[in-house]
Design the sequence.
């Protein structure tokens, strides 16, 4: 099992009714993280390989070339950690 | 006319790239960038003049004290206060409002009294009053906001009565950029014997503000939104009102004398003169020095020119943003009643997606509630993205921003 801490610099709950979570990947690991996620998740749409709309199981999220991702409708932090762990393994 | 290209040369941060793109900083309502004059003033202070202020006789103390006191005077002149005794340095707008809520509210409010605020306020002009009303049993009344984000003046004025002890209103909304006619509301407050606190966080950095002309009893604003450092802000208060108030916090600097009586086994305390009575403990001396430099920088440009520049950018941006198929702009689009803040959304995307998308292109915008959840509830929006302009922003940056918005249209 991969440690998400190797890739994730910070997670932040968004301000607003949406309650989304933004994951910011470590700068020196972001390209590797993006590569791994793109290999695992299903691509729905992308713009100029800068923004990727993806699904993984029941989850949908967007991944940005800048090394950030926004996840929606997550139950809690544990669910996020388990999802990230699967995506980054 | 203000020359933003010349001004930009003073801002080192604007030379950097973000995600491989030139930085476009459109989050000025949250905080402004700092010119090298302010950065140099801070450096100069710590390299050559750093000392604690007041109550010492050595050379560095005198230099630091003179710089700190002259910073108060500079700020007082900037807003046309009578003098430095009317300008209390605090951490920022939030602390300034809390100071009034606690130091004035706790001692002047009781059951049956009312505080009138508007529903467009930043949380920092709502929460302190809710806390204080909970302690004093006074009540908070909320003035309505129209569907276009403008203040419903009739609703607000109808709430003001002889029961009203304080009205609290933002000069400029931090979400919509709408400029409120605070002078009109202050007049009604005074006719009813109430005091008026104006949140100037979004007005003082962007337009000429004259406390005497407004006749505001209190004006709160932050240094970091007007080119100054973080951690320094200002509470303006009319001298007689500040003098009549109890202190906010106790400690050094804010007292004249603390004397222990063996007879009563207690200390008798007398307060220092204004503004020090409200500046307990070692103040943010360097913050004050940086703020004064920021004020001098803005004065050299001229606040009327700052206002015109932001109006011009807003007029330029609005039709271009609207030309993006999926873009929606919230609140009034009448540039004559608003300054350089534009809240917007993109159909099918959350505000955070919009902000992350723009971030990829080096464009910094804010997303979320902007600490004004009640106003978003009125707009029936879960959150908004927001662009906000300042003296160093250009039309070319708006062109680039709208180009990127059009790319989002394809998503």
Sequence:
């Amino acid at each position: 099992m991969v440690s998400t801490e190797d890739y994730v610099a910070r997670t932040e709950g968004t301000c607003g009714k949406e309650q989304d979570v933004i994951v910011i990947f470590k700068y020196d690991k972001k390209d590797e993280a993006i590569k791994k996620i793109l290999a695992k998740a299903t691509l729905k749409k992308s713009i100029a390989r800068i923004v990727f709309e993806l699904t993984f199981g029941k989850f949908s999220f967007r991944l940005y070339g800048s090394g950030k991702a926004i996840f929606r409708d997550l139950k809690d932090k544990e669910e996020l950690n388990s999802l990230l762990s699967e995506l980054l393994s | 006319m203000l020359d933003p290209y010349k001004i930009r040369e003073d801002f080192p941060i604007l030379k950097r790239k973000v995600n491989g793109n030139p930085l476009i900083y459109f989050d000025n309502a949250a905080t402004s960038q700092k010119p090298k004059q302010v950065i140099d003033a801070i450096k100069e202070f710590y390299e050559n003049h750093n000392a604690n202020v007041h109550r010492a006789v050595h050379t560095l103390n005198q230099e630091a004290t003179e710089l700190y006191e002259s910073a108060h005077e500079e700020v007082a002149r900037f807003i046309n206060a009578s003098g430095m005794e009317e300008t209390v340095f605090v951490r920022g707008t939030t602390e300034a409002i809390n100071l009034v809520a606690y130091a004035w509210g706790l001692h002047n409010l009781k059951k049956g009294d009312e505080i009138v605020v508007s529903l467009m306020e930043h949380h920092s002009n709502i929460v302190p009053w809710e806390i204080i009303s909970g302690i004093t049993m006074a009540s908070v009344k909320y003035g309505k906001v129209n569907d276009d984000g403008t203040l419903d003046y009739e609703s607000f004025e109808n709430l003001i009565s002889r029961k009203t002890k304080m009205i609290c209103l933002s000069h400029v909304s931090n979400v919509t950029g709408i400029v409120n006619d605070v002078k009109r509301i202050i007049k009604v407050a005074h006719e009813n014997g109430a005091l008026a606190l104006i949140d100037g966080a979004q007005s003082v950095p962007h337009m000429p503000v004259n406390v005497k002309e407004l006749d505001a009893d209190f004006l709160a604003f932050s240094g970091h939104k007007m080119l100054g450092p973080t951690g320094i802000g200002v509470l303006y208060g009319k001298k007689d009102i500040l003098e009549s108030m109890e202190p906010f916090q106790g400690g050094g600097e804010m007292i004249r004398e603390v004397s222990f009586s063996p007879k009563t086994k207690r200390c008798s305390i007398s307060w220092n003169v204004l503004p020090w009575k409200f500046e307990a403990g070692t103040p943010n001396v360097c913050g004050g020095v940086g703020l004064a430099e920021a004020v001098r920088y803005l004065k050299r440009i001229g606040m009327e020119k700052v206002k015109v520049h932001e109006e011009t950018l807003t007029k330029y941006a609005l039709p271009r943003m609207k030309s993006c198929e999926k873009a929606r702009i919230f609140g009034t689009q009448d540039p004559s009643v608003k300054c350089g803040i534009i809240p917007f959304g993109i159909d099918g995307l959350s505000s955070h997606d919009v902000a992350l998308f723009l971030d990829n292109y080096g464009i910094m915008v804010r997303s979320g509630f902007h600490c004004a959840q009640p106003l978003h509830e009125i707009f029936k929006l879960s959150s908004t993205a927001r662009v906000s302009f300042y003296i160093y922003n250009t039309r070319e940056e708006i062109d680039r921003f709208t180009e990127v918005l059009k790319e989002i249209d394809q998503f």
About this structure: The helical segments of chain A are 30-40, 77-88.
